[in-house]
Amino acid sequence: MTALLVLAVLATLLGGTVLAALMDRAALPLAALLTRQRVETEAPDRMNRDLSSAWYLALAAIGLSVVPFAPGLALIDSPVGIVIWGSCEALVVVTVFLHGWSPNAPFPLIGAYRYAAIGLPIMLPSMFVLIAAALPAESLSLIDIVESQREIWNVLRQPLGLPLFLVVALAMTLRGPMDYADAADIATGTSAEESGAARALWQVARLAMLVSISAIAATVFLGGPLGPVLPGPVWLWLKTAALMALTVWIGNRVARTTPDRMLTILWVVLLPLSFLGLIIAGVMAL
Amino acid sequence: MAMTHLVRWAARAPAPVYAAIGPGRQAEVERLLTRPGLNRAKTPRDAAILLVAGDLPSSSLDALNRLHDQLPRPRTTLRWLDGDQEAIAHRITTALRALCDGAAGEDDRLPDTPANEWKGIGPHGQGGKGMMGGTPYGRPMAMTGKDVRDGLQLDRYTTRVGPFAPMLPPGLVLEVTLQGDVICEASVQAAPFAQPAEADAPALCAARMLRLLGLDAAADRVIRGRPLRAAWVTGAVPRGLARINDTDARDRLSAWLRSRTVTVAPPDLAALLPGSEWSEAMLILASLPPSALIRAARATEAA
């Protein structure tokens, strides 16, 4: 069964990444990148440069490993699955920072620091909405959170949760209105000096993270593998794909404001809103 | 076999083009790069084709050579002088196919060695004496100075950006002193290249701001004269940014999106940019019609 679950996680990550590349119309450009040279900057931090994309991919895989593919069945059946995912989110900030730090160039470094500044206030609403979703389940396990949604999905029980988590998803996948690390005004920021296969790998890792965070959102807010007729994994894949499409659509359609203004929005609007959601969920769970 | 498939897919991908735009060619290039089959690269590292549009002044040839060498191999340079869009689009796709078919591409134009020997200490060359300020081994290092916002001591880093930087108007060379991404000082080292009135067209001006707001697809749609299809567009531009003649950057974007031409008096760039973050500064520059920006930069340069 463990081998089957390992296969399910890897197949979901691989298939989902290909689907995400198609949604982004990035499949052919990614293939083209592999035919081009990888350029070196002067005195880069080679170890972190090579590791950052690998970390990003690994965090996407680790995040997906706590997602139940059927009721009661996850590769890592942890009593603190939500905390494992939370640590993945926090480490994404570190990974993106290292990606910007390592080329030893100004625009990547600006992207790295910007992302670190945005990263903290985006972590807090994320943790609040996830804890709010854990309250009805009285558990931090994603398997228990799925079970708690048999009667009503969290997207209906806690309507603030999914919209707020989608903002987190945009930030974790460096996309559209939350892409402060690889933005156009800094020539794609942390990726500005990267070419060829290295650039392709970073883009693939971003797409893989989109799969992972969409699967987490599907699990926490849309009942994960729960659903009639079709088998559990199919429901999870369908819900994940729908959330991936929604995130891509928002990313392409919503404008990105300046980092300074986004910081104000995060601290003054989204953080209190997520805290309000947590208080309401707490009172309802009493 | 896998390599054959890869090369075949690469040949079918949109051609990644980085444009070095010369005098009078900004509008034509911006329209060209919205064509299907062409992809406007946001950094030279992501391009295979260097498009040199128009006659560049000899003062920017060094910068062009440096830009050329920043493109990864295999790469090719195409010069576009006549303004025929069909012909250049065909030449670009043909050149990409040739690169995918194994054409050698171009060698570096400049020696691939550091201008100054690197003498850092440690496994990553990260350490050494005198790491604050000055130009050890020919490299300018950050030095602490008063933060322009709260007076704390923060690193200041001075660098030049342009004349072919993707976020700046073609030809503009800025020398900026940054603390983090806040501009403390800015001076114009070279004014943007002169552009005809067509570069002030509302659709083109709006598209430049839309790209900075992360709305590439919307920018292409606006240039092609189609509906915008994007949300929170003007709202994303902070109020009060670059207020000139009673209009700020948001007002100007709003007017351009309604197909209205905007005229503003040339501002004092050296006074306008300091104190703003890099992303705000780029929005400020994009919110000025090229004609006003060129006059402003020339006045600042002369001063």
How would you describe this protein?
The complex is a heterodimer of chains A (286) and B (303). With 286 residues, chain A is an all-alpha fold. Chain A has one domain (2-285). Chain A is 70% helix and 2% strand. Chain A contains eleven helices and two strands; from the N terminus they run αααββαααααααα. In chain A, β1 and β2 (73-74) form a beta hairpin. Chain A is globular, with a radius of gyration of 18 Å. Chain B has a four-stranded parallel beta sheet. A four-stranded antiparallel beta sheet of chain B has the order 5-6-7-8. In chain B, 32% of the residues lie in helices and 16% in strands. In chain B, 43% of the residues are buried. Chain B is of the alpha/beta class and 303 residues long. Among the domains of chain B are: 2-100, Rossmann fold, CATH 3.40.50.12280; 197-302, no CATH class. Chain B has helices spanning 2-12, 26-32, 61-70, 85-100, 202-212, 216-223, 249-257, 269-272, 278-286, 290-302, and strands spanning 15-21, 38-40, 49-53, 76-80, 143-146, 153-161, 173-179, 182-190. The mean pLDDT of chain B is 89. In chain B, α2 (26-32) links the parallel β1 (15-21) and β2. Chains A and B meet through α2, α5 and α11 of A and α1, α5, α6 and α9 of B.
Average pLDDT value of chain B? 89
Biggest sheet statistics of chain A: 2 strands, antiparallel
Helix content of chain B: 25-40%
Low-confidence stretches of chain A: none
Please report the two chains with the greatest interface, counting residues with C-beta closer than 8 angstroms to the partner's C-beta.
Answer: A-B, 47 and 57 residues
The number of distinct structural domains of chain A comes to 1
Alpha-carbon Rg of chain B, integer: 21 Å
> What's the story with the biggest beta sheet of chain B?
4 strands, parallel
Instruction: Specify the number of helices of chain A.
Output: 11
Beta-strand segment tally of chain A = 2
Distance between the termini of chain B: 62 Å
Summarize the helix and strand pattern of chain B as letters: HEHEEHEHEEEEHHHHHH
Radius of gyration of chain A: 18 Å
Number of strands of chain B: 8
Low-confidence runs of chain B (pLDDT<50, min 5 residues)? Answer: none
- Kindly state the percentage of residues in helix of chain A: 55-70%
